[in-house]
Amino acid sequence: MSTIKYLLPEDRIPTAWYNIQADLPRPVPPTLHPGTGQPIGPDDLAPLFPMALIMQEVSAEQYIEIPAPVRDVYRQWRPTPLFRARRLEAMLDTPARIYYKYEGVSPAGSHKPNTAVAQAFYNKEEGITKLVTETGAGQWGSSLAMACAFFGMECKVFMVRVSYEQKPYRRGLIEAYGASVTPSPSPETNAGRAILAEHPDSTGSLGIAISEAVEVAATHADTKYSLGSVLNHVLLHQTVIGQEALEQFALADDYPDIVIACAGGGSNFAGLAFPFAGKKMRGEADTRIVAVEPAACPTLTRGQYAYDFGDTAHLTPMVKMHTLGSTFIPPSIHAGGLRYHGMAPLVSHLLDLGQIEATAVHQLDAFAAGLQFARAEGIIPAPESNHAVAQVIAEALRCKAEGVSQSIVFNLSGHGHFDMQAYMDYQAGKLQDYDYPAEEITMALAGLPGVG
Amino acid sequence: MSTIKYLLPEDRIPTAWYNIQADLPRPVPPTLHPGTGQPIGPDDLAPLFPMALIMQEVSAEQYIEIPAPVRDVYRQWRPTPLFRARRLEAMLDTPARIYYKYEGVSPAGSHKPNTAVAQAFYNKEEGITKLVTETGAGQWGSSLAMACAFFGMECKVFMVRVSYEQKPYRRGLIEAYGASVTPSPSPETNAGRAILAEHPDSTGSLGIAISEAVEVAATHADTKYSLGSVLNHVLLHQTVIGQEALEQFALADDYPDIVIACAGGGSNFAGLAFPFAGKKMRGEADTRIVAVEPAACPTLTRGQYAYDFGDTAHLTPMVKMHTLGSTFIPPSIHAGGLRYHGMAPLVSHLLDLGQIEATAVHQLDAFAAGLQFARAEGIIPAPESNHAVAQVIAEALRCKAEGVSQSIVFNLSGHGHFDMQAYMDYQAGKLQDYDYPAEEITMALAGLPGVG
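Structure tokens for the assembled complex are given below, as produced in the milestone run.
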């Protein structure tokens, strides 16, 4: 029984990113200035981002050309393989056809370099010499560090403290690429000092780390800020995943009935799903598209769709998104990349439009699914990706119960080689599920601007 | 500046392994029975290995067909990419053309699955339900565990204690695949108990772990032994690497002047080098072929070419090889896969024939080279592979000094995502070089059968 691989030749790397904003039945709500509450213009974002990325953020063009130097770097690992998981299908004894797009073949081991390389390139083009960012589990920080090494730029990473301490090895990778890593909250910024004053033992959160990184960028002229998810231009860069998958499904003479990806900030989800969602919105195909989030941080399934800040210190603009409140600090689940209080505005908008579904998975179910996948397919998924795997297995078993042969594809957004402690803890029975912390979330939501 | 990728379509996975024994100007010296000192026959090996592998061990056929179920599994990650390291060339400002064959794309992250899958298949074919093996850094153990999961077999791994303790994450991977892991020396075997009686704090060695695994296989009828390097059939299975590289060089319209790989037991070296060595011995091409070993365990460069045991307890047959003595326990360098007292008989024979060269590299130089490579090419190499990288950089700088443009290829045998502690220790200045422990080696060599 063989895992089938659908490879594209490298001249089939997409030449343009797909911009879902062109196909939306109504536009995504505007981004608001944190001070005035009015829609922001490009100049408001200029302290943080190079103009090329700001223009992508608001573009309505359906396709945006990928610069040749970015495609040159992509070429090292793209097009990534699309696999048909025949051994997993056999293990589940399901009539479903299970496919996975594998982004773990990038040098950093995840999908994050797709946008890291693009962001480093555009910043370099506009004369920026240093990028500052935040990272949770470290997938994003290591990817941006790598991209900065390629383009000869400096890189500073604020790393959520719980990951900094529990997952030193992605920190090691970031440092191996020559970047500097600071645990967040840190005494280096006003935002960090404020948190530490109130919570000296804070384990940190993406929201806090974003505040610190934004503050550093806003106060240093040679430094811009770089974000690994959430924003429109970041999701845009990830669409190479789904565009390749569309071509690979044509090779396979198949088309997915269900597209699945985990969702923290939304970038790997958008990367696979948006090209399929575009075809759906254009009436060219009908596909269920499912975002899977952790039950411990259930943004799409239990959050509120409202204007909120992207960070804890309220330095960022406000976006309309599904949110648990910008002061909510999620439990320390191992899927650090999914511990974010908010969600990409474009993903939230699609959910609001009824174009996609969302579901939540508990940590233990996610790891059980990941182990089953590893024994069938060999690849051990990142804990984030395990959430998608759990949903895929549930759908495949539903197909078996119903006796239907549906085609399912998911984004295997990264490998778990940096996350073995989590797997060891799971196998030793040391992990627990976290219930939806209703009270904390309610309190955080009560603080939403314009809410209650 | 772009890293160039030379990909083969999957129908170009080799259909047969290349057997270098067919092209040797004189045959490799025979394997001797540990009791009688006489050449062994197939039946002597039958308690340890399935007959198909024993026949491959002594075959003189130039090509041995790869069974379809093995090729089906290979198809998931093979053919692996051959890259031209253009960014590294630019960083070194060298006229050399540097290529690397990247085996880290396998699900286990190294070249080891090439033979693990084949060995699991042949054992399964002959009705074996359980395999036992040893592992150093864990690349081999995790690969065999994965292969056993694919073929529905049990797997037991004796892991060198220093790696078991210092590198728990490859152990975690082995366990994730469903195999059991025992630190070696262990109280489970006579061999282990004997070592522990003399050295209760023994950090172990591959030689000890082999003794334990062989003992378990020899005393259990349903269990066979599996070795991840050294033996002829293991090296044979790895030749898919070099055969693909030959085709990829044709695509690149180039041919290597120098072929480089690190050498511990010899399997990744043989995998890349043997097809090139075959062409060299057949007079079809002239190529320097360089095996790179750690200065702390300098088997080829400082050992004796003599009959010796493969293990510490002298349970294995004797083979003629470069050896530091079967009781030599190498210093605890981070390149655990290179900590072996001996060398594959075929690699030793080629060195004796003058067909290949050998050189030794210190640990600190190897890590410095690995970091330089990571910042140029994104991929962080396994500490073993860093030894090859160090030699490649030295050759590329020689080319620069001499003003010659040579073509260099090396085997990037695995990624270093499980080895970040070593990189962090290196960057923190905590690692040291180990001098050639002359006295210990001399004592171990003095114990060689038929020596002094």
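Residues 4-10+67-109+233-445 of chain A form a domain with the Rossmann fold fold (CATH 3.40.50.1100). The mean pLDDT of chain A is 94. Further analysis is deferred to the final report.
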